[in-house]
Every structure is written in C-alpha cells, then in structure tokens.
Amino acid sequence: MSQWTISNSADLYRIEGWGAGFFKINDKGNVAVSPDANGGSIDLCNIVEDLVRRGVKPPHLIRFDGIIRQRAKIIYDSFDKAISEFSYQGNYTLTYPVKVNTQHSVVESVRQCANGRKIGLEVGSKPELLSVLAVHNTPNGLLLCNGYKDYQFIELALMASHLGLRPIVTVEQLYELDTILRASEATGITPEIGLRMNPSSRGAGRWSSSAGENAKFGLALYEIIEAVKQLKARGMESCVKLLHFHMGSQITSINAIKKVMQEAARVYTELRKLCPGLEFLDVGGGLGVDYDGSRTNFDSSMNYTTEQYARDVVWEIASACDEANVPHPNIISESGRALVAHHAVLVTEVMDVAEVPDPPESIEIDSARDDKLVELVNLYNDLSIKNCHETFSDALSSREELLQRFVQGNISLEDRAFAELTLRHLFTRINNLKQSLKHVPEDFEALEGMLKDTYFCNFSVFQSILDHWAIEQLFPIMPIHRLAAQPTRKAVIADLTCDSDGKIDKFIDLRGIQRYIDLHPYRGDQPYYIGVFLVGAYQECLGNLHNLFGDTNAVHVELDEDGIPAITSIIEGDTIKEVLGYAQYTGEELLSGINYSIDRAVRGGMMSAESSAKFMQRYKESLGGYTYLLWESPNSSFMPSNAPVETKRVANQG
Ligand SMILES: Cc1ncc(COP(=O)(O)O)c(C=O)c1O
C-alpha cells in the first residue's frame, strides 16, 4: 500500500466538501482554519495547545468571528449580484434570528459582521426582545418581532421605535392583531405590522413541517384577508409593511425553495394591491449548510449554493411583481444557520479507549471444559474463507446457548468471560475475511456494529451537540492533528454523561450515514483531540444540563492585522456552583450543609480536624471549578510548536 498522506485524510474526512474554504489540513497534518476563506490560516491544534498551557481545559468551544464576517459577505454579495443581474428595484437586508445562537458574544459578532451594511435582528420571545433592545443600536435598524406575543411584548416592541429602531411586529396568530391595536392606541405609536403567511408548498428536509396546512405558525390566506379587513375598517391598512413566511430550516432542495417562492411572491403581489404601504417580503430562514459536503438534497446537505438561492429568490419575486405590475419589494432573509453554523468548533479530548482486541492465530482449550466452549474454540481454529458464513451463524447460536448455560448456573463467570473474548476474536476474523468475499452476505452487516472501538471523550452530547441526539443531525467530525498518519481504528465516540444515548455513532458519508469514524490509535501518553465542526447554529441554546455538565470554555480567535492568530477573549464555562444554582442549590446552602456534615463527622470521631479542613478546601475548589473532567493531558512530544499564539485581550467573564 502506498504511504498515507494528508490528502488521503482530506478525502477520508471530506474536509474540502464541508470545509467551504474555511477548514483545511496544513502540511503539519493539523486542521487549519482560514476565517477569511483562503486567506491567512490558524493552526487549530496550536490554539488548543496554547489554551491548555494557560490552564484553560478542554472541552473548548472555539469561535472564529472572521468566519461570521465572511459568511455575511457571501450572503450579501450573492444578493447584490442577483439584484444587479435582474435589475431588481428593491434592496436586500440580512436579518439574524437571535434564537439560532443567542450568546451575547455571538450576537455582537453578528452585529459587526456586515462591514458597513445594515443587519437586522429578529426575535421570537420576550427574553430575546429584551436582550436585543439592549444591544441593537443601528440607526433605523430592523427589529423583526416574530413568535407568540402578549401585550407586554408588543408594547415594548412598539416603543423600540423611540430608540431609533424600526420594529415590525408580525402577526403569527389572528388574535395578536387586536393586541397590537390596543398597544398602539395606549402608546400612541403607529404600528408597522407584518403578516406571516403559511405557504401550502412545503420545504424539503427535516424541518419541512414548518410550512404546510398543519404548520404551527402563520396565517391561512383567509385569516390574512380577515386581518386586512379589520385594519381597513380602522383606516390602518397602510400599517401592513411586511409579508413573511418561513419554509423551515435547512432546506435541502432548490426546487422546493423555488416552489415556495413562487407561491409567496404571488401572495405578495395580491396583498400589495390591498395594502399600499407593503414594502418588505421577508423570506424567512431555510438557507442550508452543507454539513456532509455531498452537495445533495440529503438531510445534512443542500443541492444549491448561496448564489443560486439568492438568484432564485430575487428572480421569482421580480417576475411575479413584473407580471402583476407591482413595485419590487425590499427583500429580507432571516438566514441564521447559514450565517453562524461554520464559525464554531467544539474540541474535545480523548480520555480512554475501549479497543476491539487483536485476534490471535489460534486459541487453545482443554478438551475437558464445557462442550459448548470447546465447540466455539473449534469454530475459531477451523475458520476459513469458505466456511465463514456458516461459522458466523454457528457462532451466534453458540453465543445464545452459552448465555443460557451461564444464567442457569452451568458455566462459571470465567468460562463466560472466555467465551465472550473468543467470540469477539472470531467476529473480528470473520470481518477481516469479509474483504476477500465476492458477495458479502447481508447478515455480515451486523459485524461492523460489533467491532468498533469506543473513544471516551471529555464533553457532553446533550450540552454541546444536542441535535445529534435529538434529531440525528450529522456534524463533520475529525481529529484535529496526526492527519499525516493513517487512522487505523474504526470507532464510535462516547461522552461523559451516564446515559447510553450520550454518544456519537453516526457520521457523515458520501452515501448517507456511516456508523463509525476512522481514528488514530490512542497512545495514552499523548493527548488526542477531536473536533466537532459547524456547531455554531442552534446547539448552544438547545444544549441542556444533563448530568449537570454546563457551558464549555469558549474562546474567540482572530487573525490580527499582521496575520498572526490571536485569542481575543476567553469566556470561562459554567462552574459547578453555577449549574447547581440552576437546580436550586445556592452556594450558601451547599456550604452550610457540608459544614454541618463535616462538623458532625469530626465530633463523632470519624474525621480528624486536619482532614476536615482539607475536605472543605477541596469542596470549595470544586464548587468554583469546571463541570467537565480536569483531565490531566499527557505531555505532548509530537505536537508541532508553530509560531506562538499571541494573546491580545483575555476577558474572563465566566
Ligand atoms: C421564523 C424563523 N425565521 C428564521 C429561522 C432561521 O432559520 P435558518 O436557521 O434556517 O436560517 C427560523 C428557524 O427555524 C424561524 O423559525
């Protein structure tokens, strides 16, 4: 076999497909990040190594703000190009739905990403509204208010116009119109109203049920007509400024987008005739991210580019309006996933590996042992390519029979352990023989599942990539170093939680889903880091505190003016005290509880005064510490030491 190279690793992990120019492998065999796509690059492994040296423990969530800027540029450039190509008369505004990643530092990066262009913000709840009111200071900046609303929400939204913002309150349910009118009367503020239609055409992909007859949000056409009638009765029909729809997130097929656009554009032209103040067509979210790099309409992919998306949106609106002789609206898209997904990488460290053991040439057994055990060993020693299928089914029945004998007390624990190991070896050898078979029997598929190593990693699926557990979303995953060497182990990844679902056992693949990932052998004396990429959208706010694992340490990394990587801020993850606070334990209660127990133990002679002081000290230290394991990273001798990572500003906000 020819020698393994970096480009073999690039092909194996499909980094060119999903990396979108932001992620590559450098000539040291480490993942390199180019926040400006194809500009200067940052060695991800160096960043992790530097953080560890500073005492910032993995898991790390590493953010590249430059990627958000670049993604905004790609989206704006695509719309600008389409607008000029079709001589479109309206303009385009990118609006960020803050629910996609509500973290303050991310919203700040988004606000600054548009390079002089205006960026709108969209909220879907009162807490989101309150956070945005405190940071949105773009003069006349769009503030789109979606989601279910009460009087307080609407009143605050209307009052935002006094802050110099442009709030548009979108009616999702007909009852909200009455509340908007009451709040408007009470505040004396003329509302700018949006109407959310519920398109009959559904998107494509996992979230396609966001549109269509049974969708949770949006008005049916007869409700839109009713809303306009009610406004007209008060002479307020010109308050309708915006028509909105949302076809679902991660739309995988361009044809589905075109179809929804045609329907929405027709509704716009009709509504514009009834509401002369109508000015915006807000096409919602849906612009996808190619998580597996396959450029197909598979759930984790998309079969179109951002440019094609922008062209189709602009073209469909322009042609419907031209036909109906209606002025072109200003276009808004609420593209959240496409803006922020790429910017964040979760890096976790392997702590241990349960490996499938290498099978021996032959196994010896005393013929006086249990006959089923002897039979199993004979199966092992007689295995050949000709009998491997038959041996496989015999081994499965032996497994069953030996289990029964154990449960009935007829064989010992040692015999059962011997059988278990022999079966493992046997399955491994059958799996190896499989490669030489012309026709692989269907039942051999089960072998892959039995013969994977488990890499135990310091992170929580439920906190950091909840969608993998909840909806089986695939994320690109790969080691961030050692990529000049061949990864020879087939593995699944297990997290820290005491939950059998806390694992990653589905990985991207050109042909769908792969049930294992190729990893390098774990050498216990050197750290091995694995990156989960494209986790910047949705995962952080959806993440939960299962087993009380909290937010991970997060860092922002930029290239400075001289192209040198700089860690611009470090935001410490949750402390144990903080997560216990969410579970209603205050720090004072915990300390007085533990004090009481220690005191009782000292008085009862179970603990010396000296140990009690040490215990208390450890308890307090842990309370103020990280919720993840403080894993002692083995000293690294193989990691390259590149140019040092410069630290410009370290802000501990944890
Ligand atoms: C109303 C609305 N707008 C925008 C979005 C963001 O969608 P995406 O992340 O696909 O851009 C969503 C998410 O589902 C949504 O519900």
Task: Compose a concise summary of this entry.
By secondary structure, the chain is α/β, with parallel strands linked by helices.
Helical amount: 25-40%
- In CATH, what is the class of the domain at 88-335? Alpha Beta
Q: Kindly state the number of beta strands.
A: 24
Can you count the helices?
Answer: 22
Please identify, by name, the CATH architecture of the domain at 88-335. Alpha-Beta Barrel
For the termini, the CA-CA separation is: 50 Å
Mean pLDDT: 93
Identify the overall geometry.
globular
CATH superfamily of the domain at 88-335: Alanine racemase
Radius of gyration: 29 Å
- Poorly predicted regions are 636-654
Ligands, deduplicated: pyridoxal-5'-phosphate
Oligomer: single chain
